Amino acid sequence: MGRGYFQRLYESTPTRMWINNPSGPDCDQAIAAGAINCTTNPQYCQKLLSSDPEYIQGVIDDVLLHETIDHEQAAFRVYQIVSRRIMEKFRPLYEQSSGEHGYVTMQDDPRRDEDTTAVMEAVHRNQKLGRNYMVKIPVIDGGMQAIEQCVQENIPICATEVFSIAQTVDMCEMYEKAAAASGNHPPFFITHITGIFDEYLQKTCRRLQVDIDEKILAQAGCAVARKEYRLVKEKGYKTIMLGGGVRELYHFTEMVGGDIHVTINWRDVEALVKQDAAIEARIDTETPVEVIEELCEKIEVFRQAYLENGLKREEYAAYGPVQLFRNAFMMGWFTLLAEVSKRRNALAI
Known about the structure:
Blueprint: H1 4-12, E1 16-20, H2 24-33, E2 37-39, H3 44-51, H4 53-66, H5 71-96, E3 104-106, H6 116-126, E4 133-138, H7 141-152, E5 157-162, H8 165-182, E6 188-193, H9 194-208, H10 214-217, H11 220-235, E7 240-244, H12 250-253, E8 260-264, H13 266-275, H14 289-298, H15 300-306, H16 320-347
Parallel strand pairs: 1-2, 1-8, 2-3, 3-4, 4-5, 5-6, 6-7, 7-8
Helix pairs in contact: 2-5, 3-4, 3-16, 4-5, 4-16, 5-16, 6-7, 7-8, 8-11, 9-11, 9-16, 14-15
């Protein structure tokens, strides 16, 4: 597949693309199309059960037959093995760029997101998979403490499940302090989950029967993301903003023009390459004041995300959009555990 769209994007803007949860063939094509890094998450194995079932079932069987029959340990090892395959594909880019690109993120068992010790144990085990490993940890209290430790240990970081300005400021300030104290400045990406935020607002407005035009509602996620981008630049935080949770192509194209990276699924890469649209810088587009006012007035969740003091640190984990995203990860992890059990029974061990 040609690189027309992304080749032109890279030549004219600092905006870059990451690939999310790819199968092996999708990963190869994404790299050819211009992906500079890769994200995985606790849904990765669930996705492979649909996109590449023979491969992942073989991995599960091999783990059960030769390593462990314990469901929990087996699930962890399977995720490691399928992620390592992607790390190996990105390793040449990591080497060629002297460690600037070619990273693969891993985010482990979502049931342990708030357990700093458990998170760090997983980080240290995953580090052994390859030098281009990047830890991916939610910006909630226990996760933030783990991220602080990662700075101290100079481990590349993707801070995820960010839906609000408050989370961004809090996390970036913590990184700056930890970096100053330790002298380490590991690669640090702050991830704003735009599409999932829009999805949560849409569901909330339907449930509460909020009277709001869909065209106004559709601007919510990008409005918060643009404000986050401006704030990161104005405050001079040593981070690169990473867009995530893309649900529509505009969640990518509305970020174009910024010194920003966006992680998308392979189907979205294909769609953008097929469209081969003109490159239009959109990151500095101002959301109309009246749109912001209406969103703030009618939707508390938007107001909490948009205002710099809209949430307190102890509220991050229970925030609605965070819970929606986390529940999807829970389902992904439980699906993997169920498949491990199924394969164990099939192998009669």
